[in-house]
Amino acid sequence: MLIEYKKEGRIATFTLNRPEVFNAQSIKLLNELHDALSDFRDDPDVWVGIVTGAGNKAFCAGADIKETLQFMKEHAGQFWALPGTCMRGLEVWKPLVAAVNGMALGGGLELALSCDIRVASEKAVFGVPEVKLGIIPGEGGTQRLTRMIPWCKAAQLLFTGEPIDAQEAYRIGLVNEVVPPDQVMTAAKKWAERIAKVAPLATRSAKEAMVRGSSMSLDDGLRLEDAFEGYLLQSEDFIEGTTAFVEKRKAEFKGK
User: Domain coordinates of the chain in residue numbers?
Assistant: First the structure.
């Protein structure tokens, strides 16, 4: 298996498992990632996901140049030909945490960008070197970077193809936390556990409102927010959350 997919309690872990080629994205790997993410999306008992790479050198070095880039060339303009993942083509509203244990380049950075929280090893590097190959990032890099970090820093990464280190990624707000290499998964699990403690319908609604609202006017975004709020006010989790708060006890959310 090129994707190791495991579930432990409320948390699922997706591990890209091609360490011999720095976890490069082959078509088979992307197909397996699609299947695992689809199962995660549809499983009511799993609330948060962690995405990482096997080994300690790479989260993901990007697309497999010999296979995947050739496939993309043969299907130019047909973005639907690639397997749908959280990068594009598959809507996953459950929160995702990226545990970036090494290089995250090209499609690897785009995969990390499609996650909501990013934890990085001190040895991690981030970049989109596609312009050095005569193309641009094709899985959301040009769109997500400009929405997450200052325009000039996104332009720097996209126009030069040169990487930045973990500390610079933290400084510009690309990652949430930088930790020693042997603590990346521990830190990622702590983030996932924190998220799994709160109401799952609320976190999914917050994520969807954030993502959809980012391309709307403020007025339309506020209307979207109001629609989600109305939906959540009718949920069992809202009743449980407010009751637990009044009774000064831990809420037992069910995702209903």
Answer: 3-196, 200-247
Residue in the structure block whose two tokens are 């993410």: 37
- Joined together, the tokens standing for residue 191 give 């983030």
Q: Looking at the predicted structure, is the pLDDT value of residue 211 above 70? A: yes
Task: With H, G, I as helix, E, B as strand and everything else as coil, classify residue 184.
Answer: helix
Positions annotated as catalytic residues are 110, 130
Report d(CA 129, CA 114) in Å as an integer: 18
165 near 125, Cβ under 8 Å?
yes
pLDDT of residue 162: 97
Q: What is the mean pLDDT of the chain?
A: 94
d(CA 232, CA 236): 9
Q: Which CATH superfamily is domain 200-247 in?
A: Lyase 2-enoyl-coa Hydratase, Chain  A, domain 2 (1.10.12.10)
Q: Show the tokens assigned to 207.
A: 């994520």
